[in-house]
């Protein structure tokens, strides 16, 4: 039972008071626990230093919080995890902490250690450069055009001033033709507006092309890198968070990248250029502006950052509500089976109401902010006109200069305001980019390609597990296999049985090289499988069928072809026939083109299993691994599937992991596993006559069957 207590980590006192009483009460925990920090991970386990474990934990916690608080104002999403016997303290750099109380297993190992990632992944400029390099010409073009548009923006106030001066002179002197007088400067200004419009469109087009291509390249590279990672990586990282890096983080990075280059460049150029113009128009008015403007922009930036924090909280709340809906809709069958629709509706309504309230508050905050900033900006205009009027009456300034000054100072205000917003956006973009880059350069510990292949005609399919010891990387303290030995003779069927959690499926995972053993070797035809090409091993040598086969939401034809993409239709149909699936597939109106729905939801368990068998058989594997392939089926489906399996296993090396002992009595060898080791081995009759663990299991299963 997991009990999560949340507290704001910044408030040190509550965290301290939460820890001390817990630890005082459970002094035993300290004696039992060990302290380790695995390299690269952030998992700490307590009592290599039993005496000062608490103070060490506390200082690590504070250091982690300080680091995440000072590096960036944005949440980074990393976690540190402290394991104190059955208590796990998770400190996340989102500045929250959870104290999770977990039951320890029989070895005093906590069941829920999750390896956290670096709390603040670094932004790597050289990786960004690799993505930007192919778009360099377009990027330089965009920068030049944006710079040109900014320079013109500096010219416009001056030309507006010229125009006003012409009008003012005409009004004063009433000489000449008004249209003739004004035509020249007006046309110049119009031309300037036109060129500026063209430059602006040009740089936006180029920049969005650069942004989209960089983002698309990043998505493809990140997806490829994620697919390359080994299974242990996915044990330690939630898929939702990985998908978030592909979508939200890259989106955020792209927006920041485009905004910082376009608006950043424009705003800085305009601010500097317009300030120079202001100074040349009127040093006295510029002096006044220099005093007032930064104060207003500073106040605006402060309120702006407060509003952005509100906006982030409101977005997080919307994401939370979406999470509730996602979970309920994703598990709709379970929700319905437990008649929990009402509870889920209430839960969703509660979260939506909270997000509605937060968004309303945010809306009110924005409204007040905009109202106040409108008043302040208009006051600046009034103040400038007032002071400028005085200068005009003293003949120190012309009306046109005042006009130029007003427009240029408005441009400066806008530019300064956008620089302050851009700064926040840049920080967000950098932390999103860092999260994306973190996995781009991650090398899997088990590489997918490279290594040798055994020619098909000489492959016998003999497998030897030699002295294998293994712990899952996410649970290094819990040894699942202990000096495990087993031989799968060529073309024979070996079954593994034993208590639940004894490590049977782990043996299959090691053969597939989802993980590598900590010690010992697995041999295929006398060769260490670590020296063999992994894509070849998984793609052509080993066929894997498990208890709950997962199908893709495409047609049956495509699902079977997943086992061998180049297979012809005839090969697919042949594999389906071998798997006893042809008849039910052709009974559907769309036959092999029937779309099976998300994860194969429109097929029955037995039908799904037979499609999965066809998918495994189409690659004609030398070794077949059946991990409780029939245990989820009813008697009739099991009979049909078993028939298919009997046919499929002929002439192959087969490893069966079985719960129901009735299904493996014909196996050439049955191994009984207990506590990570093989404790008995022999045929069904040999093991029965021994009267050991196997006959015990048979007796228990028979008794359960009779209940
Ligand atoms: N991905 C994983 N990460 C960490 N521990 C795991 C993982 N998968 C399994 N384990 C643990 O390894 C041990 C052996 O699990 P395994 O699935 O191999 O047992 P099993 O004999 O196949 O059990 P069952 O008959 O119930 O399927 C269990 O204690 C389990 O909790």
From TrEMBL:
Q: Which domain of life is it from?
A: Eukaryota
Which cellular component appears as one GO term in the record? mitochondrial inner membrane
Q: Topology relative to the membrane, per the entry?
A: Multi-pass membrane protein
Q: Which GO terms describe its molecular function?
A: ABC-type oligopeptide transporter activity; ATP binding; ATP hydrolysis activity
- Asked whether the UniProt record includes Membrane among its keywords, one would answer yes
Q: Which residues form the signal peptide?
A: none
Q: Which residues form the ABC transmembrane type-1 domain?
A: 140-428
Instruction: Supply the alphabetized keyword list.
Output: ATP-binding, Ion transport, Membrane, Mitochondrion, Mitochondrion inner membrane, Nucleotide-binding, Potassium, Potassium transport, Transit peptide, Transmembrane, Transmembrane helix, Transport
Which biological process annotations from GO are given for this protein?
Answer: oligopeptide export from mitochondrion; potassium ion transport
Residue ranges occupied by any ABC transporter domain in the UniProt entry: 463-700
Coiled coil, from the record: none
Question: This chain belongs to which protein, by name?
Answer: Mitochondrial potassium channel ATP-binding subunit
SMART domains referenced in this protein's UniProt entry, alphabetically = AAA
Instruction: Say which family it is in.
Output: Belongs to the ABC transporter superfamily. ABCB family. Multidrug resistance exporter (TC 3.A.1.201) subfamily.
